[in-house]
Amino acid sequence: MENFELVILLLDATLRTSTPLILAALAGMFSERSGTINLALEGMMLGGAFAAAAVAYYAGSPWVGLLAAIAATIALSLLHGFACITHKGNQVVSGMAINILMSGFTALVGIALFAQGGKTPALDKASRFQPITLPGAEAVRDVPILGPIYFELLSGHNILVYIAFFAVPAAWWVMYRTRFGLRLRAVGENPGAVDTAGISVVLMRYRAVVCSGVLVGMSGAYLSTAQGASFLQDMTAGKGYIALAAMVFGKWRPFPALFACLLFGFLDAAATRLQGVILPGIGEVPVQLVQALPYVLTVILLAGFIGRATPPKALGRAYVKER
Amino acid sequence: MHQMHGTGETGAVQPAIELRGIDKRFGAVHANKEIDLKVDKGTIHGIVGENGAGKSTLMSILYGFYQADGGTIHVDGKLCDIKGSEDAIAAGIGMVHQHFMLVETFSVLENVILGVEGGAVLRDGVDKARVELERLEREYSLDIDPDAIVGDLSVGLQQRVEILKALYRGAEILILDEPTGVLTPQEADHLFRILATLKEQGKTVVLITHKLREIMAATDNVSVMRQGAMVADRKTAQTSPEELSELMVGRRVLLRLEKGEANPGATVLQVNDLCVDNAQGVRKVKNASFTVRAGEIVGIAGVSGNGQSELLEALGGIRSASEGSVLLNDQDVTPGKGVDAAELRKRGVAHVPEDRHRMAMVTGFTAKEAAILGYEDDPAYNNSILLDWHAISKATANMMLEFDVRPDDPDLKAANFSGGNQQKLVLAREIMRDPELLLVGQPTRGVDIGAIEFIHKRIVAMRDAGKAVLLVSVELDEIMSLADRILVMCDGVIIGEVSAAEANERVLGLMMAGVDPNEAKAVEGQA
């Protein structure tokens, strides 16, 4: 019974740690499926987290903070698009530039506004996304097995967790069942086909990076106004890259990317759980090793297992009409 | 006001397309010079010209891919301002591009509806599209499964998907840019049957090509372009290939190469059960066995992508053999086992690779740098440790003189030479070292007719000097006029051998499609 509870708690933590990864991985998918490499997820997530925490602090509402985060990440996406789509710049360089820029910029503005060493002030309850208790959760709480699953695992998360999990089928539907998705996938495979069909390649790619901005903005807001209670300098700690790795591991598809995110989230949750635990025969689990697990896995997966994933054909290439 | 000219018998029928004074420059290149063109409704109109004559540019302007600097476009007598592909589609113009504009991971149906989905949610339009697609396929006997993934289809079928795309958009005028370059003769024949059906249905077809045989066989009218200008309009029935080629080049050229009998001597190259895999581990050459003797040209024919490239690369030492052996003058030179391109060069193998820009030269180099690539450690080009630029310049100037490379400036960047002159420089580099064996791939790809003639003569001269030549080309005309023996490859297998005397396009075409040579000859016998 104790083990069962442990598993429930671990899975519960998995949902919470994988939420920002899922939103960011979907964001990456929209951008990359249209042919624009989005290495800037890390920096955009950081920018979104800062905007959300700062604005939520002043406005006293997490929703206003969320809107500010989305506005900020859309602006960053447009910047990335301006460099990569309009001016056909190197997409990796542009992405890295945004990451470096946001790492410094958020700290700079944070210090200027709040003078707390780059942090934003701690948010009160009303300025954060609060856990939602699903209907009937209290009632079934004591039912064996199903009770804890519903009460602990499914209920009691904040709205952004539910949005993230709902966003996966929604993204799938948009990608595979709508005109927008068809054109978006086409522009990432062969922009020439889209151009000759009388559709603007540039506009399509801009629309895709804006979608990407909306999603990554939510993931940033989650970090600072739902999971945490303030913005901390460089609080993303590589989550943007991990999300990107999950997207690649998921072969640029929503559901496989979801599972990759859950796997990374699980490792992250397990790392927290395993700290200080004494395992039989091994002794105390070294904290540093456990904390490194998600990153080690990222490297292993990217290096080996997904060698044969085929990216969108036009990924990373600006569209130039051939002479 | 411009007075329209009626056709006389039928009254004032408007031409389907009329271009007036179309002018286009790309920087210093004057690609289209004041072009006038009239294409009658319900006809197949050919446009011929050498590579770089401006045909594709003209059609790209008509399809809205480029904007003309001057001139007007009239469709069905109405002035049309075509700013982009969407305007061309709206005016009823469809285009089948030389490089297909298809999304390979999509199904046929998805490719066809891209841009005309018929609603924000796909389901609304897809069912209607499927019905319409099936009707079009029946009407024009296109014979394609709408749910097939385009990347899995053969090139010929992919081309039909392009045609289907245009028809689905309601095209009345269909432009085809070099449509047969990638097809087997049988696929090409099928294409021409489709075009004939289109014409019967009242559609107008514009066919861009540099193959005169196709113009003569398929078109009603033909316009000839040369160096960006429209030089002639003819009724196809009233012209001849000789006249057209003269108009294209501006002077008379030999269409058939005149060469004497081959005089084969000892075996130079012997290939035994050679297998070659590509980088993905797919076997591209399967158990190839053949010989090339001194004083003969052996041609390898086949549709592009059937293993010829890998075979040539292996023999040139830049790709390893997986199985089998290669003997050069009875010495083992199987590629991969200590034998690389440099070693082969030392032993007298010259290699002119298929892809000039990727493998034969560095376009950013000057001509003299390009002229020593692969031989840069030759003592003749070196002082003690530095390159001897004086000697290199002299050697390059000599190559340029011998191979008529123009302009004859060893310091000019390789990229600034025309395709034909680049190729002549590469050939000079390889041939002037007097090799035992010349491996040559697509020697005249992207080369103008004048240079083709020169290059062919030099290859035959190699043979007459008692050297062995292995020629890989996807141009059947080239293979048939140069080779003494022809091997046909299909799907990595050498299907069979035909002597130059008994070769014709039908037999070779059937073999290229994988038909056994004896069967192919039997089919030919019945025809």
From TrEMBL, chain A:
Name the UniProt record assigns to this protein: Sugar ABC transporter permease
Entry's Gene Ontology cellular component terms: plasma membrane
Keywords: Cell membrane, Membrane, Transmembrane, Transmembrane helix
Cell compartments where the protein resides: Cell membrane
Protein topology in the membrane: Multi-pass membrane protein
Highest taxon, organism lineage: Bacteria
InterPro entries: ABC_transp_permease
Record-level Gene Ontology MF annotations: transmembrane transporter activity
Stored Pfam families: BPD_transp_2
Transmembrane segments: 6-27, 39-59, 65-85, 97-115, 159-176, 257-282, 288-307
